[in-house]
Amino acid sequence: MFLNPDTVNKLPSDHGLGPESETDTQGDSFQTQEDIDHDLFYVNPNEAVDDDIYVHDDSDIEIDLENLEQNIHHDKDEELPELEPLFPGATVTVGAIMLLLALFVTKHSLVGDGVQQLLQLISLVLPQGHKLCTSLNAFKNYFKNLKNPLVKHYYCGYCFGYIKDSQQEQCPYTKCRKPLNHRRQYFLEMPVKHQLKKLLSQKDFYSNLQGRFSSRQNVYNDIYDGELYKSYFNSDGPLSNPDNISFTFNTDGAAVFKSSNISVWPLFMVINELPYRLRMKKENMILAGLWFGSNKPEMGTYLKPFLDTFIELENGIEMSSPDKESTFTMKAYLLCGTADLPARCILCNGMQYNGSYSCWKCLQPGKTAKVGKKGGHTHVFPFIENQPKQPFRTKDSVLQDSQAALDKLDAGEKKYVTNGVKGPSWLTFFPKFEIVHGIAIDYMHGVLLGVQKTLLSLWFGVSKKGKAFNFCSQVSKVDKRLLGIKPTSSVSRLPRSISQDLRHWKASEYRSFLLFYGAPVLYGILDDQRFAHYLLLVNAVFILLKMGSTEGDISRAENMLFDFVKMFGVLYDKCSITLNFHQLVHLADSVRYLGPLYTHSCFPFEDKNGILLKMIRGTQNIDNQIMTGVSFLQKLPELKQTTIEKGSYLEDFYNSIESPNILKRGLKLTHDIYVLGSIKFRKLTDEEHRAICQCLGYDPALEQYRSFKRIEYQGFLIYGTTYSRMVRRDNSTICYSCENVEMFGKVLFFLLLQTNDQHSGLAVINELRCKNYNPDSNMLSVEKFQTVKAIPLSSITESCINVELPDDPELSFVCRIPNCLESD
Fold this sequence. Notes:
The chain has 824 residues and is an alpha+beta fold. It has four domains: 5-18 and 149-381 and 388-436 and 603-629, no CATH class; 52-144 and 630-658, no CATH class; 443-599, no CATH class; 665-816, SH3 type barrels (Roll), CATH 2.30.30. Strands 1, 2, 3, 4, 5, 6, 7 and 10 form an eight-stranded mixed sheet that branches. A hairpin with a 7-residue loop joins strand 5 and strand 6 (263-271). Helix 3 (94-107) packs parallel to helix 23, helix 16 (507-522) packs across helix 17 (528-545) and helix 18 (551-571) packs antiparallel against helix 20 (587-594). Residues 1-7 and 9-79 have low confidence and may be disordered.
């Protein structure tokens, strides 16, 4: 690489990439008394912490419990006070009850008075000599001394340049030099090394990092199957060492209050080597930094401390784990990042999404197009048939364009942007980081909030009335169909109206519309050509989100997207072919490099942004409030491991507070099938009995059968139609395998059989016969048969969504769910 961090000093000072006289990236860890008064949460890892913190009795508990972490690091011979019984003879320890109370008051957002009264209420039923604290202040003081160390990094409030010396009174940038007395601002770094050590101190955490070594076929199941990860793994690459790990990062702005422009920009990182569900859990995510205020971050300033961190991580740091007998050296790498288009522009130091050469994957410039009759303009990317996604950007071409931009700046040229690159991104200085392939295309923002949202506005927007592609006169019929759908429990939000609620739809609702509802409710509404065109998008995204897609599947999806973008300019306004539509031609490559789309989606990060915002209850000391809550969330597994015995009733209670909607599993039938709810005796009809005999090949000759209505299967909840408590949702539709042929049905109920002390299960179903089976399609037309059939539970392959149209009872569709891991 011919660029180095010092070359960024040639950039204008408003880039904030570092003062011309300094290259040190270490933050200032000195804390003045003024800082302590202003920022009660800041902790210098090298200094003692003042525990005497004033607390308002009526303040929120998440702000009160600034030290809501328990020091569990003791000498081996030291008595652990948290393991003392709550009262003489009690089976519950002080630490366990305090942890459960802390989780409870945080989960239910109790304020100070509520916590005080709860403590006093519990103490009324405890015997004399109990050790439960009875005051809010004592409760707060119980949790102390285990904050994550924070480092403040200062920057100039005028030019956003990084400031090494927090006592400096004048901006060090030669093009700024303004006084800093009232404009010295800061962002926070939460040292990644410290958080890694805490995570690895948990039992089984290191063991959970080894899933990448499972035998894998030539399919795309996770990020490990992408070419980028393989480049670090194959041929004895660094990630082939079980001690080493990699990260996916995300940053994006989240508005704090509707009435102001204050926003927070957290820098999240997830450990790719953890199984997907574990890596996306809030307590396993690393919050590496926090920028807050009324301005977007200057990435050269914000990322500066993390560059030093990753240089050190790639050289290796000493770690220990209860899963290993001795210490080991861990190396960590920044593998990839995901963000929406505005955040991606400032991360990569590239052109905005509405400018020339704004695609980060290729060097197509696009062109300006006129919008409407009033003379407005937009930037579009017409489909180029002979090279739809070429010429490609590469890491080398980005570095060359960065250098060219710097040279033009040196020459005093105003138009210094080169091929959409404004100058070097700090990401190019991160060791081994692939600046092109390592920046993901996020389907949440690009496909759902971009393409699908645009299509709905074209179809049903009143402003497009009279156009050949506008069907606003049919919106009431579409709404009736949409509101009649009963999705499965895996879909977080019930369908809402297009005519009344579209402006309030969330990304998850656009996802459900694209994958499950859209094609069925638009059947017979769109003309045949536009309906077939829309199915190209639906089926392509389904394949790219699916677990187990082959290279052949990915190539078919890519061709579908090529055809979709190519025909879009013919069937709709050409001025709508914006960057979001152009990125569709690169979507298949995103899977090839980084695995299925869900592995690098912004959905889990947006969810964590929501959690951060819920921690903010007032306008003062926003950073304090967020870090208090985050530190507690990250500490929960460690506290739980120390104070609550695994498999005990206390663990069950802990889990019920943390995740109250998770159903309690009953009898385990196989390694991935569990009975939910009670098992009762059932007398079968003659038709049901014949179906059982046909399935088993013999007559069990029983008067009554043990029956149940619900199961959990590979994370899916499957309910029989006889489960009457389900009103607005339908979990009964399944796909099952019969002699290697995929078939569909609606479960009526389940039966439990026992042979030689072995349990097995059957599902009694009504068959749904598929009329247009296509393995590449997630929407299949089916016909329901009232005849009863029985199948082994082991033949079930997946849960599906059944869409029936109220205006046409003959029409029924089965929509398949691409994977059981992604949460919307």
